[in-house]
Design brief:
The chain is an alpha+beta fold. It has two domains: 2-109, Gcn5-related N-acetyltransferase (GNAT) (Aminopeptidase), CATH 3.40.630; 141-278, Aminopeptidase (3-Layer(aba) Sandwich). The protein is 28% helix and 34% strand. The strands form two sheets. Strands 1-2-3-4-5-12-6-11 form an eight-stranded mixed β-sheet. It is elongated, with a radius of gyration of 20 Å. The two termini are 26 Å apart. This is GNAT family N-acetyltransferase.
Length: 285
């Protein structure tokens, strides 16, 4: 088995191995090639900090990573790790993770972050043996798209900009109960900004709430309302506006911090069901 970073491995080769790796995953992964490319871009994929396992020049396993500054620390994020079924239980994942951590040390990266499905006990145990700790539990929700016609509100106005300004982003952060996960972060939204639709609720030109949804796959990546305007129907109106901004028959909100009681309760009341729970894990390097 040969291990090397992935600068010379094209994206379609990664995709072919990706489909084999996740063919028997706990959650069905049905991702077209274009969506795979978008996911790499969204999460800041960097081939020079990603590692592949090659058997006679065939890519049989990988650790795909991105790098960003996260909470003031240069951080590497695991976009996806796996080995195709025929090559599992040979210590390949452990070896790839060891190589990644050596690369991190050479590049001055201070933290390694990833997510693992809670029920995937084998993966969770492996990461714990590698020194990762559970930071928080993340809930993932799905619902049927249900575009509703709502009465016009006098208290606020719904705006549909092309993107959020830097000033609006700063204000939006003050609405959060908990910070978004990596793939729902501001940097991830900005990386593929044109693929999202944005809904803002304003009162006299002042932002009081907002939501962001992927126009094609229905992923709602952020939804928040200013504290003093909660329980007045703002979030509900934003939500149904978001439903009308995607062509997907289903809408999802993934990686919602379990500690965010109000958002979890709101999603359940809005007809969403939880379909999986994940751990956010990290290791200080």
């Amino acid at each position: 088995m040969e291990y090397q970073t992935l600068e010379k491995t094209d994206t379609f080769c990664l995709y072919q191995t990706f489909t084999k790796v996740f063919s028997d995953y706990q959650v069905t992964v049905d991702m077209p090639y274009e969506a795979f490319e978008t996911n790499l871009k969204r999460n800041g994929y960097m081939p020079d900090v990603s590692v592949g396992a090659f058997e006679q020049e065939e890519l049989v396993g990988f650790v795909l990573n991105g790098v960003r500054c996260w909470d003031g620390v240069k951080t590497i994020y695991d976009l996806g790790t796996g080995v195709i079924p025929a090559f599992r239980k040979r210590g390949i994942t452990k070896e790839m993770l060891n190589i990644v951590q050596t690369i991190c040390q050479d590049k001055g990266i201070g933290r390694y972050q990833l997510e693992a499905i809670q029920e995937n006990t084998a993966a969770v145990s492996l990461y714990k043996r590698q020194g990762f700790q559970v930071i928080r539990t993340l809930n993932c929700y799905i619902a049927e798209r249900n575009e509703r016609k709502l009465g016009k509100r006098k208290q606020w106005q719904m705006i549909h900009p092309q993107a959020l300004t830097a000033e609006q982003w700063e204000l939006a952060k003050s609405f959060w109960n908990c910070s978004p996960s990596w793939q729902n972060s501001i940097d991830s939204v900005r990386a593929i900004a044109d693929l999202f639709a944005y809904v803002l609720a304003e009162v006299s030109g002042n932002l009081i709430g907002y939501g962001i949804i992927n126009k094609s796959n229905g992923d709602i990546v952020q939804l928040a309302v200013k504290h003093e305007y909660r329980r007045q129907g703002v979030a509900t109106e934003i939500m149904w506006c978001l439903h009308g901004q995607t062509s997907s028959p289903k809408v999802k909100m993934i990686n919602i911090d379990e500690r965010d009681e109000s958002l979890n309760a709101f999603l359940k009341q809005s007809g969403f069901r939880m379909f999986v729970k994940q751990y956010e894990m990290e290791k200080k390097l």
